[in-house]
Amino acid sequence: MGDRFQTIVDLDATATDAEPLARRVLDWLAAEGVVLAERTDCVLGQPLGHLPGPHWERAVTDDWDFEPWDGLAVHTRRTGFTSGADMPGAAVCPHCASATPLDDETRPRFFTAMQTWHDTGTASVDCPACTTPVAVPDWSWDEAPLAFGHLGFEFWNWPDLTEDFRTRLAGQLDGHRTAYVWGDI
């Protein structure tokens, strides 16, 4: 079995918002007993994270068949969150709901915009269907989820997070939109 992750990404947090919102969510998670407040070496690819707390089961589905064995990594800088090795087959416009296949013609335009967003914090792609410029973080993706933001809560090797938990966590984020990205490596 490989490693799995689930990430709740704040799509609206700015670089300035990320740290204070992360502290608020971590305080809430620790108060709920979902994670421990102390940071330790417990997540892949990050120097420190937060171990599962005594009430970690408040965050996951009832039909779990394993306990989490890694922790929570909190990302507070501009990050493109992916589901792993797979890339989506299409980008979906938030204005007209048209799906643009990511083929040899459109893929370079989207990937260039993604890199520009990562480097600068701003980039958009005009929707081929409605011609509206759409900021990279505002696109939706089919098949393999992607999300772009300054704040992400990445749970490593936990049972499936419940929709209720994801909604309650999002409630700590000042009404910001969130995305849920999951995958295996």
UniProtKB/TrEMBL annotation:
Entry protein name: TniQ protein
Species per Swiss-Prot/TrEMBL record: Streptomyces koelreuteriae
